[in-house]
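Homework-ish question, so no full write-ups if that breaks the rules, but can someone show me the predicted structure for this set?
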Amino acid sequence: MKILIKKGRVIDPKNGRDEILDILINGNIIVKIDKNIREKVDNVHVIDASGLIVAPGLIDMHVHLREPGYEYKESIRTGTMAAVKGGFTSVVCMANTDPVNDNKSVTEFIIKQAKAEGVCRVFPCGAITRGLKGEELAEIGEMYAAGIVAISDDGKSVKNSETLRKALEYAKLFHIPIISHCEDEDLSKGFVHEGKASVMSGLDAIPAIAEEIIVKRDMAIAEYVNSPLHLTHISSGGSVDAIGEMKKRYNQVTCDTCPHYFTLTDKATLSFDTNTKVNPPLRSKEDVDAMKEGLRNETIDIIATDHAPHDITSKDVEFNIATSGISGLETAFGLSLALVHEGVLSMKTLLKKFTENPAKLLKLPYGELTPGSPADIIIFNPDLEWTVDRNTFASKGKNTPFHGWNLKGRNLLTIVDGKIVYRDPVFK
Amino acid sequence: MKWSRKDLLGIRELSKEEILLILDSADSFKDISRREVKKVPTLRGKTVITLFYEPSTRTRTSFEIAAKRLSADTINISASTSSHVKGETLKDTARNLESMRPDVIVIRHNMPGAPHMLSRIVDSSVINAGDGAHEHPTQALLDLFTMREKKDRIDGLNITIVGDIAHSRVARSNIFALRHFNTRITCSGPPTMIPPDMESLGVHVEYDMNRAVKDADVIMMLRIQKERGGISYIPSVKEYSTIYGLKAEHLKKAKKDVIIMHPGPMNRGVEITDEVADGPYSVILDQVENGVAVRMAILYLLTGREA
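A: Not a homework solution, just the prediction itself:
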């Protein structure tokens, strides 16, 4: 089966492309990108993309698919359905499942399950330490052989600096990055950002330095052992400053932030809506501005969702005991397009942070539109106005602080490996 | 002005007019408690539930007396005797209570925002009787009532709040209320007990207690919130009491007619000496008396609008 995408504005940061072109897919491969491709009508499915943008499928390097162990929150099936709806064709799933993905049998299970049930590509991220306990190294080599693309104890930092040093050194053997969740445990006993809002709410607070201290420590160790380090879900302006400084002299450090950190401030927590409870916490207006500036000046390489779906009961409790996290796959791209509408980023730069940059970091052969490469493609309308309705989420996780928000821009069609896996009802 | 809110969840969202409406209503309720027959039929047929997840003597008794003097039926539920210990969530407790059709639920909870959550679930009026370190609106209202009663005004007062500001819902609610008036609010206490962004609430921070009490019209002493880890913020209670305990010598630096307030429970010999607590400047027991009047006013405004 062939697919011909006609007359779309093709934006591909990797190949520096931004023009009206046709794309021909044969089987699972992009075979041709050119002006006005002509094919016999009888054996090709033609998609009219005029007025729309055609881009490489987005890559989300930070999601929680919850399987195995927490299928009541999300499964590989529902999580990947949410992904393709949101425009993602590849996701990297974190290791904090039950059992933890700290050995090859769990890695193999996830990969097998993703093949059977998943609707997009799923790349497991292995644990750094056994059981995410921060003590002994997990069997990184065996997990690597089974298919992990990175290692992370996401959910917490590796508290012991020597353990982190060993992990950074050992990971060099496989050329995979360590993804670091930056949070000083002792300074993080609260639930919201320490600032003006926490003074008003009386909620126990976490200062921004809890993140910044670990950002600086982890970068110091990575530089010392000359190993790649990726700092995930960065939320504070101080972290962006520190990373910017480090990047001037050390080129193996990268970072990402999430849409909620450049969209919402800690003010949102004053409603005590537990959907605003996320880790790291929503921070100040100054931090939000620093995220945007960091994205603009390329200090922040990647936008990830930290998609953290939860069941209703985990959130429908008092703020202190509610679980942290936002179900983000279906709102991330719409929220991020606001950066283009506001003039913070060009469309090409935004797409780069969702495609070329994560692909490069994780050494994935995706995130580009190159003849001969696998056909992972999305078609989206950057100007379509729509209202977020969590009840229509494909994800089991309805935990979003953006319910009822009006967003501009939405994914309309997703192709993974040459197959149309999602089509928006408005896109005939 | 008429009262229109279903709930009293905090002071932060109240207007100055709403605060004054409560204080003015409380004026007329204060007399009732001093009569021979301390009961009026205003809330006859209404049901008031007090749902307390934290221990309380004053606040709970005060609400119960206030409700009974208005002829409401009152039911008290404590977390220690409720299904909470069997693992029932606040949401389920709320829905069960709601099924019994109370008119008002008074809730005290150790977590900020719990009353707000309750109010979203139930149709009954919800009164926040203290939620963690967040707010304690009825305490602030009785404090303002007492200040106005003793000073004939709130505008122009210098108010000094001393103690564990970070963990104090009483301090927060008082600050939110007093901001509406032309007051100078000074917060004092160990730097570990005052959040870095405290001044964003429009208050002055003065760690030195001797300077903080200078020219004060009102000194409000707070206790160390041991249940919120307050004790780890200071080296010892002895050292705290040496530096921040209110003693007679402090009063000399304040205005001549200074009043000393404390929301209770007092830790005598820690944040306040016996001499000051029982001395002529203390209005601590007036606060307790006024608490009943203010809570009657609030119950009346929330439920008794047709009366």
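Now go work out the reasoning yourself. Hint: Residues 105 and 364 of chain A are 22 Å apart (CA to CA).
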